Amino acid sequence: MEKAVLAYSGGLDTSIIIPWLKENYGCEVIAFCADLGQGEELDPVKEKAIKSGASKIYVEDLVEEFVTQYCWPVLKAGAVYEKKYLLGTSFARPLIAKKLVEIAEKEGASAICHGATGKGNDQVRFELGIKALNPRLKVIAPWREWNIRSREDAIEYAAAHDIEVPVTKEKIYSRDRNLWHISHEGGLLEDPANERPDDLLMLTVAPEKAPDQPTYVEVGFEQGTPVSLNGQPYGPVQLLTELNRLGGANGVGIVSIVENRLVGMKSRGIYETPGGTILYAAHEELERLTLDRRTLQFKEQMAVKYAELVYDGNWFSPLKKAMDAFVEETQKNVTGTVRVKLYKGNCEAVASTSPYSLHSEELATFSADEIYSHRDAEGFINLFGLPLQVQALMEHRTGLKQPKAEA
């Protein structure tokens, strides 16, 4: 093998993979780091990768593509995994896989390497993406090959190879960050009996330390896509960045979850998704205003399957493509504004308006109106309840159910 492209983050696992690949495969290692909005984490990446033994490193700014082509579709779908997780790591992996394939093809590499563990979901997400986009590329997954069995072992390997890593045996959390969220796993978090410590948080303040007065923000949507804040137009990256700031300052978007991994085990993690949490609350409220009952109910049911597909790494599957087409059709009238109240970790949509609103105050009012006749309800109830009436008459006729005697 002459060349391998490594999905590189500068974290513990990918830092030690560079010398490991050279020692065990004798190949040239080309590192690739996707800028998905990690912030200052990217500053030392280039120097560190070369120092660790990479021959070249690509660092590509993918933030806008990440937000518009990955965050927004999942938001429009209303997809939430197991009622809590807003899928920030799950839908970042297919974009990284896509770029890994592009670089491998450009460089003439025969393999792609990732640092996902053999117990996690990311190995599946990376490899399904690679299989869908270029099935001829070989995949190297060191965690399934080497004799390193823990993060403590990995720290010792890094020390032996004089590689600086951003973790210690005391602060051993595994983190994944992008503009949508940050995840925390490992260490004391692995035991669900332990409450998360406040010093763990990086994007949000603890709710009890948030301001004593609520913050209001008005989010504007066009066909399901967020486009403005408080009446001012915002670009996608700018909008999500500002909502992260507002949500984080008010302790919004902190989730503790024991989730079911695809590989069959349960794992405990802490997620911070301040801006995404605000957007989900606003988008859901606007859909309640603009979608008819059957479409809304069917979309809510489909969102569960959509979330599962994304979580399981099937981003490039035919079924997800078909689901996306359905979602886009439902979003044609999801245009309007929603006012959201942020207060000490709570996020509540409190008001909404839309030119396509299906709510009619004239119909809903208890006052007299000319459109709705109360007398019409009698015939509707008779027809709607006809199957129940026929069932009950049959039961009485056959003796399956005796009528109650008059008191």
Q: What's a concise summary of this model?
A:
This protein has helices at 12-25, 45-52, 63-77, 92-107, 122-133, 151-160, 236-249, 274-290, 293-311, 318-330, 361-364, 376-384, 386-398; strands spanning 3-7, 28-35, 56-61, 111-113, 138-140, 174-177, 182-185, 215-222, 225-229, 232-233, 254-260, 266-272, 336-343, 346-353. With 407 residues, it is of the alpha/beta class. It folds into 3 domains: 3-172, Rossmann fold, CATH 3.40.50; 181-291 and 333-353, Argininosuccinate synthetase, chain A, domain 2; 367-398, no CATH class.
Describe this structure in words.
It is a single chain. By secondary structure, the chain is of the alpha/beta class. It has three domains: 3-172, 3-Layer(aba) Sandwich (Rossmann fold); 181-291 and 333-353, Argininosuccinate synthetase, chain A, domain 2, CATH 3.90.1260; 367-398, no CATH class. Helix content is 40%, strand content 19%. It is built from 13 helices and 14 strands. It has helices at 12-25, 45-52, 63-77, 92-107, 122-133, 151-160, 236-249, 274-290, 293-311, 318-330, 361-364, 376-384, 386-398; strands at residues 3-7, 28-35, 56-61, 111-113, 138-140, 174-177, 182-185, 215-222, 225-229, 232-233, 254-260, 266-272, 336-343, 346-353. The chain has a five-stranded parallel beta sheet with strand order 3-2-1-4-5, with helices on both faces. The chain has a five-stranded antiparallel beta sheet with strand order 10-9-8-13-14, covered by helices on one side. Strand 11 and strand 12 (266-272) form a beta hairpin. Helix 1 packs across helix 6. The mean pLDDT is 93.
